[in-house]
Amino acid sequence: MKKIYTAIIALIYSFGFAQQGSPASPYYDGFDFSQTGATLRQSLSDKIITTHTALLTYQDAEDAIKIVDRDPTDLSNQTVLLVYGFSDNMCPENSSDFPDHRRRNRFDDGTNSCQWNREHTYPKSRGIPDLGSDGPGADVHHLRASDVNRNSDRGNLKFGPGSGNSGNFGGTWYPAMNGKATLHG
Q1: Are 90 and 99 in contact (CB under 8 A)?
Q2: Can you give the pTM of this predicted structure?
Q3: pLDDT higher at 183 or 90
């Protein structure tokens, strides 16, 4: 059965998704894919840096999060999923609508309790140099919607092992995707 699924996936890929010529044509046209190791890494880095032109401001990133972190199960498109699961704080206006404390109204971004704001997946103060709130600090790939209080609770802690609710476990932050998750270090 596994071989059948593998064959089907390979067939779909070859007809529907594979690109002709070099990978990701025309972006990588002329790129030397025979490179390896540090040379390949540097060449890819140079390619990305020289072709990346769509820079977002920190505010643009917040607006983008309202789209990219939308809850796919919410057919009304009114909620965003939060990066940390099962916060301990109860938001009275959300307790019946969002019993797992993983969702907020996507238009309710701010700094007050029971709102959401931007959480850096890697603490911006730990970047070298500090990632700040522009450039890498405003990269939407690096930001997620987070409950305001959970964002504040994390501070600049690195991710680490834990179980149950998201929180500080021995000086590291356990993100918890649901109430039963366990991350082993």
Answers
A1: no
A2: 0.66
A3: 90
